[in-house]
Amino acid sequence: MNDASASLRHCRPFWQFWSARVLLTAGFQILTVAIGWQVYALTGSALDLGLVGLLQFLPRVLLVLVTGVVSDRFDRRRVVAISLFIQSLAALTLLLGNLGMGWQVSRALIFALSVVVGCCRAFDMPAMQSLLPNIVPPRLLGQAIAMAASANEAATIIAPALGGFLYAVGAELTYGLSAACFLACLVLVSLLPSSRVLPTGQRVSLDSLLMGVRFIRSRPDILGAISLDLFAVLLGGATALLPVFARDILLTGPWGLGLLRSAPAAGALLMSVWLMRHPIRRRSGHIMFAAVAVFGLATILFGLSRSFPLSLLALMLLGSADVISVVIRGTLVQLETPDDMRGRVNSVNSLFIGASNQLGEFESGVTAAWLGTVPAVVLGGAGTLLVVLLWMRWFPQLARRDQLVSSPETV
Fold it and tell me: What is the mean pLDDT of residues 263-279?
């Protein structure tokens, strides 16, 4: 193990952060599996699966400027804690509804709570991302981001599969576990140290709200990296359709859906472990574009597969390619952004991530309703390959980028 990894191993605050990321991701993934299966069971509509993603994404668009300023002006730990508490209440509402404690779980209730969860994630994502550079020194940040990514993937491997199995026993168990994960994460985040000085005497103005957008526009490499992820995953994302593949194409039940949702994370976890030991130091642009192209090819393979093992393998390949892009983009954004602007920049970045995921789910649902499930996924994978070619032409400096961090003085 290299010196950086050894140093991180003895950094207690980082492992508190890592554990909190595991619990946060687990809580959200378990909630997503349960909501996806339940809304499809209630309506049988692929479009409704896409609408859930859209309703979770829209608050990020509407609140993107506000959430960044909140993350930069207030204690980021408190911002995350409040968000987690509200998400736990959303999960408990669905738990009580499935128990028949005064109300029934309906399509309208799921949609309403999806908006609530979307609002919470609009605040907690930029705040959580901005906490990491305050916990570890800049020289360890690349490895820390890879290890933090492994936290997401570890949770995404175990949590959806566990959620699927528990849902087969009782939906209330799944929602209860989700709420417990959110509350445990709240405790860990509250115990993290704070090493940043909060700004005082600064007025909130339109200029300060737009500062993150202007910063990203002034950095072509950052703009190219986060927009590449936006459009590639927007077109290539098929996760919203996994309930359709599990029930109607691959002929499995909730347990199969859980395994399908876990497969991309399994591949991503293996790749993130590799990146911890072998960080990307050269040819970062070429590696990122190649990884996104593999993501598109794996999406096409998944769409065409009728074999459950082959589908799992395609999703693992998809996840391993995606985490390479995540680590490169995350390191680039965090190291080249001043701390007093990280909240606003990460807010815009999380909007792009949300667009690629939640809005991508809506796009997949609409396309599947129009063209059919398999054509929608295959067409999306082909669209990802087209995006790679266009971005290599439009952002040639990013494609030729060698060292990941070219401006150490900004750290």
Answer: 82
**Pairwise CA distance, residues 82 & 155, whole Å:** 21
Fold for the domain defined by 204-406: Growth Hormone; Chain: A; (1.20.1250)
Q: Are 163 and 29 in contact (CB under 8 A)?
A: yes
Domain spans of the chain? 12-193, 204-406
Cα–Cα distance between 125 and 342 in angstroms, integer? 12
User: Which of the four pLDDT bands, split at 50, 70 and 90, describes residue 411?
Assistant: very low
Give the residue carrying structure tokens 């993937």. Answer: 153
Identical fold, 12-193 and 204-406: yes
- pLDDT confidence of residue 93: 93
Average pLDDT over residues 357-364: 68
- Closest by alpha carbon to 59, among 116, 7, 20? 116
CATH topology for 12-193 is Growth Hormone; Chain: A; (1.20.1250)
HSE value, Cβ hemisphere, 13 Å, CA-based, for 77: 18
